[in-house]
Amino acid sequence: WQTVQTLIYSNIMSRMPELDTEEIRDTFRLFDIRGDEKIEARQIGEVVRALGLNPTEAEIKKAGYDKQPDTRITFETFLPIYKDLAKNADKVKPEQFIDGFRVFDKDQNGTISAAELRHLLTSLGEKLKDEEVEQLLAGMDDIHGNINYEDLVRNIMSG
Question: Could you tell me which CDD domains the record lists for this protein (predicted)?
Answer without folding.
Answer: EFh
